[in-house]
Amino acid sequence: MTDYEVVIGLEVHVELATKSKLFCSCGTNFDAEPNDNVCPGCAGMPGTLPVLNRKVAELAILAGIVTNCQINEFSTFDKKNYFYPDLSCSYQITQFFAPVCTQGKVEIEVDGEIRTIGIKQIHIEEDAGKLKHDAYNSSTLVDFNRCSIPLLEIVSLPDFREAAEVVKYLEKLQSYLRFVGVSDCKMQEGSMRCDVNLSVRKRGETRLGTRTEMKNMNSLKAITRAIAYETQRHIDHIENGTQDKLIQETRRWDDAAGKSYAMRAKENAQDYRYFPNPDLSPLHISKEWIESVKQSMPELPGAKLSRYMQEYGLPEYDSKLITSSKKLCDIFEYCVTKCHKPKEVSNWIIGDLMSLANTAGLAYDDIELDAERLSRLITLVSERGITRNTAKKVLSEVFENAADPDEYIAAHGLGMVSDSGELESIVKSVVENNPGSASDYRAGKTQALGFLVGRVMRETKGKADPALVNELLLGLLNQ
Amino acid sequence: MDLLKLEAKELSRRLISRELGVSELLESCISKLEPGARVFYDAARAQAKEVQSLIDSGTVLSPLMGVPVGISQNICVKGELCDAGSDILSGFRPPFTATAVERMKAAGIIIAGSLPGDEFFMEGVDEQTPAAFVARGDVPLALVTDTGGSARMSACWEKLYCVRPTYGTVSRHGIIAYVSSMDALSPTGRSLGDCEALLNIIKGRDPLDGTTFDCPETALIPGEPADFAQLSPDFAKYLTSAYVVLAYAEASGNMARFDGIKYGYRPEEYDGLFDLYNKARTRGLQFRTRLRLGLGALFLTEENYSRYYDKALRVRGMIRNKVNSLLSEHGVLTMPVSDTSLATGMLGIEQRSRYCFVASLAGLPSVTLQSSDMAGRQLVGAAGTDTALISAARGTGGAV
After folding, report:
1. Mean pLDDT along residues B360-385
2. Which of A146, A436, B14, B185 shows the smallest number of beta carbons within 10 Å?
3. What gap in Å lies between CA B376 and CA B369, rounded to an integer?
């Protein structure tokens, strides 16, 4: 392995977070019934014309900014021609001749070392529909809902030398694109897809080896496994002297089998007959437009990190953890606005929320939690309405079942016994029923107090405010 | 006398002054259109009633209010059969209406029906052209697509006028595309005034066509009109090649959507996907069309792109520059409409139309004059001079 060097380049597709499609006003919601989000335009009817959704251009500018790209003043829309029933017009509109962004770079940290990955280009393109094979009727149905959904393809240079770099790069893209609202970048749901171009050569060799392209990895784990498998496959061919069998081709990753399979060879590649689409004028992006997008750009993780430390006095450790995820930042900032206790909010997020997510095997960005409910919970604790332990239980209910804290507490009788009259009588009866412990305490065995507190808590099913119980007990015992 | 042989503006004047009824005029138009055209019976009759009541209430919408107009069969009207003369679109009823048609309706024009032509209105040399219906007096005015000169040539042969507007001033939304960068809706009528009035109604930016813009009216630069011969000697040769490459290539893209899957003709039996494509397109498209699309696809292959398509794009740029620089000195360029000296044949139409390619490739306005010979005469002006060009044509007496 160490005798060989693996060279990897990535093509990352992200689905843009727009309300309407790239070239028509149809909706983009994921849960629509087949062919609900379809109009004559995206169904490819003659007589219709594509009209660019300006929001897409704005998101492309944002993607260009966070990847340090040159954002081109003019870019073109071109037709990529091929016949397939999921492609309503029999061509895909993409940016082949002049993409919107070029020459970018993304810095990643691997093993404590900063490495730079070059970005060749970012281009805008439309997605195709979906075919559904109906085995029962031996027919194939077409769903055009995804036709003309806007995508960005981010093409890197072949700058990766190991899977760890690939993972760091994808995590960074995910994080940044989410922060600026370009895409939700969910690999499982396909809103972020990654094709891996890989070749292997002997260390020291300057020429690149035969390159294969792998598709269909839907998690970072799958990508890591696919790279390991494909690298070994290349090395085996080189070691066994069967390089002639290693051909330039597209391969499909089968995560269940842990193997890649040949899809199509280069010589069978289609001629896409690209040409400029005369129905769309070149996209003109002025300096002023870029500037105004920059002005209104949401805060990036780096800026948030230093602001959390300076403005909120949060420790670096807390700030780093929270700013690793846009969702955590959103929850944090909402709760701080409501509760004004940054460190307390941070403790809830880092100590409780993140461990709940870890237990559930959920990525932090996939946490679905109404920040209002967490802030309410924190308020309930700080206003001494309920104990922290009860609050933790409630949080897990809020997290798992989207429970409303106030309703849940009321329904399960978790509210504290804060009526001191009621509590006083409980304390009195506990002291009376445990005369031994009471006299032990009075004799100087202070640990006996703990026992009595425990008894009171048991009587109140944990609903008593421990501070108040202490106060009442001491009052009674010291009489 | 034959009412429908009057100018459309004169008919509208009589309708507005209530010398004539809108439905009455429409019915006489319908009875004449019936054999060859597709009459929009219900929609047109309902529209006639509405427009009549507006007239009765004293509302005047436009100088063509109440006049029945025909449209070529590649212009979409919601719910009306629209097959562009092609079997592959048999039964296609668009669920939307072309912007130009919406604007005509808003101006009180009655959309009487659609007029046939050759497949996708590529050539304008079929026995039945929209112009022939106007010339016979079946309908007073028509809106027809002109790509490489088809509308101009058929208007010329029928001794009518045709105005091809500056590219981008009239929306192509709802036009079944042949060549996106050259298709232009061109009024074809009995008088320059009728064509001008219709153009004024349909022009202007349309949010549904991103290539449209509001073009400021521009005056013609005064000067002695230039002749085609004043363009460079090789001009004619390059003109035809550039047109053929760009037109066929764009058509191959636009018409790839006719795949037998979504609408129009689908063979009853087929063996798998590629057989379905093959049968649908072989049977649904005429040979001449398939030839054009096949050549167009060939011009675009990776191997041929720079040799043909890209070169044609560059030639188009040179043509545009050359014509514009000539126009900046002379104001108007005059030339025949068709080249009658050249042979006909499979691609003969492209050679006969070559003069028309100047305006098509350069995106410039062109006005044809009435002519006693087959060659005809057209005036080409700079972008935005459409109205001025019509006035100039009127100055020549509108005829040669």
Report:
1. 93
2. A436
3. 7
Give the strand pairing for A4-15 and A192-202: antiparallel
Task: Give the residue ranges of DSSP H helices in A10-116.
Answer: 54-66
- Cα–Cα dist B16/B202, whole Å: 21
Q: Dump pLDDT digits (tens) for A15-34.
A: 998 999 999 999 998 889 99
Contacts of B257 in chain A (CB under 8 A): 44, 46, 88-90
Residue B326 banded pLDDT, cuts 50, 70, 90: very high
Are B297 and A278 an interchain contact pair (Cβ–Cβ within 8 Å)? no
Is the CB of A51 inside 8 Å of chain B's CB atoms? yes
**Residue A32 in contact with partner chain B when CB distance is under 8 A:** no
Q: What pLDDT digit, counting tens, does each position of B151-166 carry? A: 999 999 999 999 999 9
- How many Å lie between the alpha carbon of B183 and the closest alpha carbon of chain A? 11
Q: CA–CA separation, A259 vs A89, rounded Å?
A: 35
What ipTM was predicted for this assembly?
A: 0.93
Partner-chain residue, chosen from A79, A83, A271, that has the shortest CB–CB distance to B302:
A271
B23 touches chain A (CB under 8 A): no
Q: For the residues A172-189, what does the mean pLDDT come to?
A: 92
* B262 vs A contacts (CB less than 8 Å): 43-45, 88, 142
pLDDT tens readout for residues B206-228:
999 999 999 999 999 988 999 99
Cβ contact A162:A6 at 8 Å: yes
| CA atoms lying within 13 Å on the CB side of residue B236 | 16
Q: Report angle CA B137, B140, B141 to the nearest 5 degrees.
A: 130
| Chain segment A195-222, per-residue pLDDT in tens | 999 999 998 888 899 999 999 999 999 9
Whether residue B342 has pLDDT greater than 70: no
Contacts of B175 in chain A (CB under 8 A): 47
A298 at B interface, C-beta within 8 A: no
- Cα B225–Cα B231–Cα B237 angle in degrees, nearest 5: 135
**pTM of the predicted model as reported, rounded to 2 decimal places:** 0.86
Q: Which residues of A touch B300 (CB under 8 A)?
A: 81, 273-275
DSSP code of B319?
H
Strand order in the sheet with A275-276: A91-94, A78-81, A275-276
Give the list of residues 6+ apart from residue A99 with CB closer than 8 angstroms, or none.
Answer: A72, A75, A121, A122, A123, A124
- pLDDT at position B347 is 62
Name the B residues in 260-319 with CB < 8 Å from any A CB. 261-263, 273, 277, 297, 300-302, 305, 309, 313
B229: pLDDT strictly greater than 60? yes
| Distance separating alpha carbons of residues B53 and B108, to the nearest angstrom | 11
Work out how many CB contacts closer than 8 A connect A with B. 101
Percent of all residues in chain A with a pLDDT value above 70, rounded to a whole number = 96
A97 reaches B (C-beta below 8 A): no
If 0-12 CB within 10 Å is exposed, 13-18 middle and 19+ buried, where does residue A104 land?
buried
Quick check: A47 and B297 CB within 8 A? no
- Backbone torsions φ then ψ of A328, nearest 5 degrees: -60, -40
Is A385 in a helix, a strand, or coil?
coil
Question: What value does the mean pLDDT take over residues B191-200?
Answer: 97
Q: Is B214 exposed, middle or buried (0-12, 13-18, 19+ CB in 10 A)?
A: exposed
Range with the poorest average pLDDT among A32-46, A264-278, B217-231, B274-288: A264-278
The per-residue pLDDT for A386 is 73
Q: Which residues lie closer than 8 Å to B98 by C-beta, 6 or more apart?
A: A47, B75, B76, B77, B171, B173, B174, B175
Place of tokens 């690793």: A324
Q: How far apart are CA B360 and CA B357, in angstroms?
A: 5
Query: How sure is the predictor about A442, in pLDDT bands with cuts at 50, 70 and 90?
Result: confident
